[in-house]
Amino acid sequence: MTWQEVSRAAVALPVGEPILRRHLDGPRAYELEVVRADPRVMISEELIDEIRAASDDSDCRLAGDVLTIDAVNQRVIYRLGDQVPDRYARYAEWPD
Fold it and tell me: What is the dihedral of CA 25, 34, 75, 59, to 10 degrees?
């Protein structure tokens, strides 16, 4: 293991969570709102596959390994990273 790998592992952030809300009725019908977006999260491979299959005008888009969430209150960008051990998911972090 190189020094860079050790130092990166030593400063790894705890895994948080993104919380998104989709309004289903009323004046904000179908708007996506970011309630919480932590800097490091786990995203399931199933959700990644759904986002890849969505149209380009969706609120959530994936270009390569960069996930962009365009909500009414903010834009959140995550870079997909390593596979989570023993889970069908990947880590994702805010880009530097």
Answer: -40
